[in-house]
Specification:
single chain, 6 strands, four-stranded antiparallel beta sheet
């Protein structure tokens, strides 16, 4: 009978543990992504500046529960360093979408301007569309007949 080398045993246990952690992280991320409807539609009115990071608002749980869809428009200025200033919600179809839209814009930022580069500092508006996936209802064959 051969006794396994401690080094090989530790390495194989570490490999199993690492794979387990990765698979759990992947499964939990997949489940989390499926549970949270995404805001997949957004529009910027001014395309002069390039977004460096666009944060999407979280779909409010109450709106998801009550199957509420809608839009929110947030207008803001973009500083030379790419940060957002003076964001304000100018339009909304339901008040429940105002806060997450405003928070998402505050967390977003744009590419900074290069040396000597000057762009218009007019206000830019971003429209977020909150849409839910349709619910598919399966009927029993007994009910159809």
């Amino acid at each position: 009978m051969r006794i396994p080398n401690n080094h090989n045993l530790l390495r194989s246990r570490a490999t199993v543990a690492c794979c387990s952690v990765l698979s759990i992280a992947f499964v939990s991320a997949t489940i989390h992504a499926e549970d949270q409807p995404a805001v997949v539609h957004f529009i910027d009115t001014n395309t002069d500046r390039v977004p460096a990071q666009t944060v999407f608002p979280k779909y409010p749980s109450i709106a998801r529960r009550d199957r509420i869809e809608g839009e929110a428009v947030v207008c803001f200025k973009i500083r030379a360093d790419g940060r957002i200033s003076r964001p304000v919600v100018t339009e909304r179809t339901h008040k429940i979408f105002a806060k997450p839209s405003l928070q998402a814009v505050k967390k977003s930022y744009f590419e900074p301007l290069g040396p000597g580069q000057v762009l218009d500092t007019s206000r830019t508006c971003r429209t977020f569309r909150f849409r839910l996936d349709p619910i598919v209802v399966k009927r029993d064959q007994k009910e159809e007949g």
